[in-house]
């Protein structure tokens, strides 16, 4: 019996010593595996950084806008060569203009622009002329669409000179003025029929077609803003064809903002 107990005790001691050796060996195995895990993590980190860099470049490319936007605030003088006893002296209107500049990084740009303004007109001497408020017959809403090609000259790091030339279409809508009745007296018999004549006149004989010429000088105030004076002259093709010279021509002088 004692021999059996002694044998069991020896077996217990032997098994405990073996277990102790295994537990001591396991940390070494773990430490041996650590460099491998670290290299895997490093590779994953490098890959994620590279992926992140590529994604950022793609986002930057997508967010880059290939055009500039333009806002112009410029009083406009509408040339009136008609009889000033009946019509108004060349009136000044205040258009609001918004445009887009394509190929902004090139020397030659394309710069479509839309301007809106309104004014009073009357019918006299078989033509539509600007009118004073007390002599008004029709209110004319004008949508002036410019399609010029722009030559851009960089004078210095911050200064730019631009010259523009191209066609322009003046889409004008004439309605009977507020406070005027269609039955009121008019040159053609009534204010209503005068308004019809004014409406037709705006579209007859290419009276809607102009040639837009411009010059502007802008200074770069920041990476996203240029500001400076701009002058534009609209040559009235229809009036020239009809022998009326520069009647209905438009001259503007104001500020141009490019952003």
Topology record:
Blueprint: H1 2-63, E1 68-73, E2 76-78, E3 92-93, E4 96-101, E5 108-110, E6 113-124, E7 127-130, E8 138-146, E9 149-154, E10 159-176, H2 191-201, E11 209-222, E12 225-236, H3 237-241, E13 250-258
Antiparallel strand pairs: 1-4, 1-13, 2-3, 2-13, 4-6, 5-9, 6-7, 6-8, 8-10, 9-10, 10-11, 11-12, 12-13
* Strands, total number: 13
CATH fold category name of the largest domain: Porin
How many distinct folded domains?
Answer: 2
User: What is the element string, with H for helices and E for strands?
Assistant: HEEEEEEEEEEHEEHE
Return residue spans where pLDDT drops below 50 for at least 5 consecutive residues.
1-12, 22-33
Question: What is the CA-based Rg, rounded?
Answer: 40 Å
Q: How would a crystallographer describe the biggest sheet?
A: 8 strands, antiparallel, barrel
Instruction: Find the structural class using helix and strand composition.
Output: alpha+beta
Number of helices: 3
- Give the averaged pLDDT, no decimals: 85
Lateral arrangement of strands in the main beta sheet: 1-4-6-8-10-11-12-13
Please give the CATH class of the largest domain: Mainly Beta
The helical percent reads 25-40%
Gross morphology is elongated
Q: What CATH architecture label of the largest domain applies?
A: Beta Barrel
Measured between the Cα atoms of the first and last residue, the distance is 103 Å
């Amino acid at each position: 019996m004692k021999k059996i107990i002694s044998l069991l005790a020896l077996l217990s001691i032997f098994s405990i010593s073996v277990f102790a050796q295994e537990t001591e060996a396991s940390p070494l195995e773990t430490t041996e595996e650590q460099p491998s895990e670290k290299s895997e993590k490093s590779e994953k980190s490098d890959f994620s950084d590279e992926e992140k860099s590529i994604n950022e470049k793609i986002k930057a490319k997508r967010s880059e806008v290939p055009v500039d936007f333009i806002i112009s605030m410029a009083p406009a003088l509408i040339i009136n060569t008609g009889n000033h006893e009946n019509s108004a002296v060349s009136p000044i209107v205040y258009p609001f203009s918004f445009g887009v500049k394509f190929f902004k990084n090139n020397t030659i740009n394309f710069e479509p622009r839309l301007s809106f303004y309104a004014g009073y007109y009357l019918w006299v001497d078989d033509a539509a002329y600007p009118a004073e408020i007390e002599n008004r017959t029709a209110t004319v809403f004008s949508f002036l669409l410019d399609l010029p090609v722009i030559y851009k000259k960089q004078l210095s790091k911050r200064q730019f000179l631009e010259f523009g030339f191209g066609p322009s279409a003046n889409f004008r809508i004439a309605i009977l003025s507020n406070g005027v009745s269609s039955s009121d007296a008019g040159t053609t018999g009534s204010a209503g029929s005068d308004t019809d004549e004014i409406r037709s006149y705006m579209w007859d004989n290419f009276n809607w077609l102009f040639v837009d010429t411009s010059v502007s000088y802008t200074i770069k105030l920041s990476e996203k803003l240029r500001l400076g004076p701009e002058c534009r002259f609209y040559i009235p093709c229809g009036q020239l064809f009809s022998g009326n010279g520069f009647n209905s021509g438009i001259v503007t002088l104001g500020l141009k903002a490019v952003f």
